[in-house]
Amino acid sequence: MADFKVFKTKAIVFPHYGADKLELVKLGNYQCVAEKGLYSNGDIVVFAPEKSVLPENLAEPFKAYLIGKEKNRVGTVRLRGELSMGVILPLNKVDPDDQLPFDVDISEPCRILRSPQNVCCTVRPQN
Description:
Largest sheet: 3 strands, antiparallel
Strand order of the largest sheet: 1-5-9
Radius of gyration: 15 Å
Protein backbone atom coordinates (compact mmCIF):
# COMPACT_ATOMS: atom_id res chain seq x y z
CA MET A 1 0.00 0.00 0.00
CA ALA A 2 2.71 2.39 -1.02
CA ASP A 3 0.27 4.77 -2.71
CA PHE A 4 -1.16 7.51 -0.53
CA LYS A 5 -4.81 8.12 -1.35
CA VAL A 6 -7.63 9.77 0.55
CA PHE A 7 -10.83 8.57 -1.05
CA LYS A 8 -14.62 8.54 -0.92
CA THR A 9 -16.12 5.06 -0.98
CA LYS A 10 -18.93 2.84 0.24
CA ALA A 11 -18.39 1.07 3.55
CA ILE A 12 -18.65 -2.70 3.89
CA VAL A 13 -19.27 -3.70 7.51
CA PHE A 14 -18.25 -7.01 9.10
CA PRO A 15 -18.58 -8.31 12.66
CA HIS A 16 -15.55 -8.07 14.93
CA TYR A 17 -15.55 -11.48 16.59
CA GLY A 18 -13.10 -10.41 19.30
CA ALA A 19 -15.19 -7.51 20.62
CA ASP A 20 -18.86 -6.98 21.43
CA LYS A 21 -18.91 -3.21 20.85
CA LEU A 22 -16.75 -2.98 17.73
CA GLU A 23 -17.15 -3.75 14.02
CA LEU A 24 -14.75 -3.95 11.09
CA VAL A 25 -15.27 -1.60 8.17
CA LYS A 26 -13.72 -2.48 4.80
CA LEU A 27 -12.78 0.54 2.67
CA GLY A 28 -11.14 -0.48 -0.59
CA ASN A 29 -7.98 -2.39 0.40
CA TYR A 30 -8.05 -0.94 3.92
CA GLN A 31 -9.77 -1.90 7.16
CA CYS A 32 -10.85 0.20 10.12
CA VAL A 33 -12.21 -0.76 13.49
CA ALA A 34 -15.31 1.27 14.41
CA GLU A 35 -17.92 1.47 17.13
CA LYS A 36 -20.69 -1.06 16.54
CA GLY A 37 -23.69 0.42 14.75
CA LEU A 38 -21.88 3.57 13.63
CA TYR A 39 -21.77 2.47 9.98
CA SER A 40 -23.99 0.31 7.78
CA ASN A 41 -23.22 -1.51 4.54
CA GLY A 42 -23.28 0.98 1.69
CA ASP A 43 -22.74 4.11 3.79
CA ILE A 44 -20.74 6.67 1.83
CA VAL A 45 -17.64 7.71 3.77
CA VAL A 46 -14.25 9.33 3.25
CA PHE A 47 -11.18 7.36 4.31
CA ALA A 48 -7.84 8.90 5.31
CA PRO A 49 -5.04 6.30 5.53
CA GLU A 50 -2.02 6.07 7.78
CA LYS A 51 0.39 9.02 7.35
CA SER A 52 -2.42 11.49 6.66
CA VAL A 53 -2.09 14.90 8.28
CA LEU A 54 -5.59 16.24 8.90
CA PRO A 55 -6.55 19.93 8.94
CA GLU A 56 -7.80 21.19 12.32
CA ASN A 57 -11.51 21.05 11.41
CA LEU A 58 -11.25 17.34 10.53
CA ALA A 59 -8.78 16.40 13.29
CA GLU A 60 -10.74 17.83 16.23
CA PRO A 61 -13.23 14.95 16.74
CA PHE A 62 -10.43 12.37 16.51
CA LYS A 63 -7.79 13.95 18.82
CA ALA A 64 -7.91 10.94 21.16
CA TYR A 65 -6.92 8.60 18.31
CA LEU A 66 -4.46 10.74 16.36
CA ILE A 67 -0.71 10.89 16.90
CA GLY A 68 1.97 13.56 16.73
CA LYS A 69 2.65 16.70 18.70
CA GLU A 70 -0.44 18.43 17.31
CA LYS A 71 -2.63 15.29 17.40
CA ASN A 72 -3.41 15.58 13.69
CA ARG A 73 -1.54 12.60 12.18
CA VAL A 74 -3.20 9.31 11.35
CA GLY A 75 -1.48 6.10 12.43
CA THR A 76 -2.26 2.39 12.34
CA VAL A 77 -3.39 0.74 15.57
CA ARG A 78 -4.45 -2.75 16.57
CA LEU A 79 -7.73 -2.95 18.50
CA ARG A 80 -8.75 -6.28 19.95
CA GLY A 81 -6.43 -8.06 17.54
CA GLU A 82 -7.60 -6.27 14.37
CA LEU A 83 -5.76 -3.56 12.43
CA SER A 84 -7.34 -0.16 12.06
CA MET A 85 -5.42 1.33 9.15
CA GLY A 86 -6.69 4.91 9.10
CA VAL A 87 -9.62 7.17 9.96
CA ILE A 88 -13.16 7.24 8.58
CA LEU A 89 -14.12 10.89 8.20
CA PRO A 90 -17.69 12.20 8.37
CA LEU A 91 -18.95 12.85 4.85
CA ASN A 92 -20.86 15.97 5.90
CA LYS A 93 -17.60 17.64 7.05
CA VAL A 94 -15.50 16.58 4.06
CA ASP A 95 -18.00 16.68 1.18
CA PRO A 96 -21.21 18.41 2.34
CA ASP A 97 -22.46 18.98 -1.22
CA ASP A 98 -21.60 15.42 -2.36
CA GLN A 99 -19.49 16.74 -5.24
CA LEU A 100 -16.27 14.74 -4.79
CA PRO A 101 -15.75 11.66 -7.01
CA PHE A 102 -15.57 8.09 -5.72
CA ASP A 103 -12.40 5.99 -5.43
CA VAL A 104 -9.88 8.62 -6.59
CA ASP A 105 -7.44 10.66 -4.51
CA ILE A 106 -9.30 13.61 -2.97
CA SER A 107 -6.58 14.65 -0.51
CA GLU A 108 -6.06 18.05 -2.15
CA PRO A 109 -9.67 19.33 -2.06
CA CYS A 110 -9.96 17.96 1.50
CA ARG A 111 -6.72 19.74 2.51
CA ILE A 112 -5.29 16.47 3.83
CA LEU A 113 -1.52 16.18 3.49
CA ARG A 114 0.81 13.21 3.54
CA SER A 115 3.21 13.13 6.46
CA PRO A 116 6.90 13.27 5.51
CA GLN A 117 8.51 9.81 5.42
CA ASN A 118 10.98 10.36 8.26
CA VAL A 119 8.92 12.61 10.45
CA CYS A 120 10.04 10.98 13.72
CA CYS A 121 13.63 10.27 12.81
CA THR A 122 16.38 12.78 13.64
CA VAL A 123 19.95 12.15 12.58
CA ARG A 124 22.56 13.82 14.76
CA PRO A 125 26.14 14.20 13.65
CA GLN A 126 28.65 12.43 15.84
CA ASN A 127 31.32 14.55 17.51
